[in-house]
sn-glycerol-3-phosphate transport system permease protein UgpE
Amino acid sequence: MVENRPFLTVLSHLVMILGVVIVAFPVWMTFVASTHDQATMLRAPIPLLPGTHLIENYRQVLTAGYNQGNGGIPILTTLMNSLIMALGVAIGKIAISIIAAFAVVYFRFPLRMVFFWAIFVTLMLPVEVRIVPTYGVVAALGMLNSYAGLIIPIIASATATFLFRQFFLSVPDELTEASRVDGASPMRFFWDILLPMSRTSIAALFVIQFIYGWNQYLWPLLITTKESFYTIVMNVSRQANVADAAPQWNLLMAMAMLAMLPPVLVVIFMQRQFVRGLVETEK
């Protein structure tokens, strides 16, 4: 029985609206700043409504680039670098994790659980603890300033491996026995049965890992010295931290809006699969 409590209903809606305002207001101010000229952004008070320079600012950022004459980087180049990195990280993490979980659950080999718990323990290690030795390995292999150096060192995921393992443990043993009776090889069982059953989990992890790869800042900053491999997050930070002049806030905010667009689109187009992958209980 659901009780009708108008006060609690109003209170819950007010809390929800307050939360939305707190989260959305910075994004709104970023958009507003991207529609004004530089003089307006340097003059108090800061406007709260969009201006008339939206098309001009975004055209300049996309075509001429931000501060292009003084060492700036074309934003399309950095967007493409971020896209390649995000897709590589997301696909790589899912591929490695699902195969590792499949091996741990369905194969019997010495020290099987020791290897799994060794992977799981890495969840307790922050990235900063292993970033210096990882950099040393990448530098020794000649992978600095390359897409391989951006992607390969961070594609292992203990979290995804654990989630796939838990899902595989929930798959009925009858399916495994039936595939053996039919003469299916382990990889055929994996490809035809487990992979289709895992599609919602894969979709949810893809969204999470894509955003993780897109938002990477410390690792690309460490291993890239050539501007042709800068990511969009690095580009925005680099243009904001200027010492000899005030940043062009209108163009900088336009860059920030463009940087937010791909992750937002991924969440919008995959939100149904994302939610199902997190809450679905039927296997």
User: Anything to note?
Assistant: The chain has a mean pLDDT of 83. The two ends are 29 Å apart (CA to CA).
